[in-house]
Every structure is written in C-alpha cells, then in structure tokens.
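Posting this for the archive.
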Amino acid sequence: MIKIGDRVEKISGYKYPGIVVAKFKKLNSIEERFVVECTEASCAGMLHIFREGQLKKTKDSLSSHKWWKFWEGKKDCYDL
C-alpha cells in the first residue's frame, strides 16, 4: 500500500520518479488517487496524479527526514 511520504516511480511509459505528497478518493467513488511531486532535476517540483496501479515504491520513505515530520500521522493533504 502506498502512503504519503513514500518514494515512488511510474511503472511504464515515461519516467516519473517522485514522492507522494497527497492522496484522495475520486468523487462518488472508492478509487484512490495519489499526487506525486517529481524529484527528477528536469521537472523537479511538478505534480502529477496517478492511480496506485501506475506506481511502485522505491527506496525508503521520507518519514525519517526531519523536514518531513509535519506529515507524520496524516492521511490526506488537507488533514494538516
């Protein structure tokens, strides 16, 4: 299961490595979507929305990084 703070990359097609910064459910649906901030230098900071099936986890999550601690225990980006 992918969660906020996980490092991920797109499974197929164009390359898109990044960090999950938010997740939400579509209106009138149980389908979840993940907002990923790109970490590739050429497009760093760009946000893109993906289905979980389009992503795979890579490396470790950012939960151990001091600047990421404000996300700890949060489920959604609007839950701050």
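Residues 16 and 47 are 10 Å apart (CA to CA). The first strand starts at residue 7 and ends at 10.
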